[in-house]
Amino acid sequence: MHDFTHTTHPQRVVFGAGSLRHLAREIDALGAKRALVLCTPEQRPQAERVAASLGTQAAGLFDRAVMHVPVETAREARELARRLGADCAVALGGGSTTGLGKAIALESGLPIVAIPTTYAGSEMTPIYGLTENGLKKTGKDPRVLPRTVIYDPELSRTLPVGLSVTSGINAIAHAAEGLYAQDGNPVMDLMAEEGIAALARALPAIRVQPDDLAARSDALYGAWLCGSVLGAVGMALHHKLCHTLGGSFNLPHAEVHTVVLPHALAFNAQAAPRAMARIARALGGVSAPAAVYALAQGNGAPVALKDIGMRAADLDRAADIAVANPYWNPRPFGPAERGEIRALLQRAFDGEPPG
């Protein structure tokens, strides 16, 4: 028997190769006239081309988006938007840029058009994160949900293979946790399994042929589905650990998701057997934790925290932070479970297969 509540979010998705050409039309549809284009420093040339294509619709460009959205950067971007008279923002890039757009929207209410170039999936969620004084705080607010998302696989053809794989596994993490979320439902279960399966097909194909447009399209399709799941249901242990490791120790976002996911799934396996069965089926494996670990390792992604900048000396503090204010999880992980979380982090640090 089913017993659930499902909430849908008002959002427009434009998907397809070459769909970037519709950006001006989509800004018009919002009733906006002046767009501030957001990007990371590395994506400035691509963002300049986007701004140039908008002509007088472009109010300016802010190219200092960084991981985990420091509050200082968010304030700087909001002030620039105000000074330029921008009435919307265009977030071109991955989770860092989308997160910056959300931070602007949270305070100003400016509508966001997201143009993802990675598979982070945050463009489909009303979840925001801001880092202040070494702690990453997350929340939900409908104001931060991008009003329109343009998925153009052409823009991801040059995404490096390594980042493609870690970004894709980051997306898989959203769907995996959706399958055992406290507020899950049958619609999200279907989307989660389909999204995981699409990424499981796409990532090995991208590693073989990075500019394979069909594989890039499949990966973006999977990212859309997985991000939609994250936007509709709650987060659990995996995301709490990643928010802790990323926000407090400045570890790279996609890589930390990739390393932690197999171990978080192993921790929850006995408490969520049906979710594990669906994840394993989508990945074509027998064990969900082992299948995720194999997908990462087999496609050249990091599997150890020690290889992505974590220090052994910080593991104790990470465990303390994670259990101090835990998210809901099918298996509790509060202060009483601190020793088990510390052991999980040690296995992730060493790159051991999930226990």
Describe the structure.
The chain has helices spanning 23-29, 44-54, 71-84, 95-108, 161-178, 186-208, 213-232, 237-249, 253-268, 273-283, 288-298, 315-324, 338-350; strands at residues 12-15, 35-38, 58-62, 88-93, 112-116, 127-132, 135-140, 148-151. By secondary structure, the protein is of the alpha/beta class. The strands form two sheets. The chain has a six-stranded parallel sheet, with helices on both faces. The radius of gyration is 19 Å and the shape is globular. Belongs to the iron-containing alcohol dehydrogenase family. Residues 165-348 form the Fe-containing alcohol dehydrogenase-like C-terminal domain.
Number of helices: 13
What best-fitting shape do the alpha-carbon axes yield? Answer: globular
Q: Give the biggest beta sheet.
A: 6 strands, parallel
Q: How many strand elements? A: 8
Poorly predicted tracts of residues: none
Average predicted confidence as pLDDT: 95
Strand content: 5-15%
From the structure provided, what is the oligomeric state, counting identical versus distinct chains? single chain
Elements, N to C (H/E)? EHEHEHEHEEEEHHHHHHHHH
Strand order of the largest sheet: 1-8-5-4-2-3
Helix-strand category: alpha/beta
Report how far the terminal alpha carbons are from each other: 33 Å
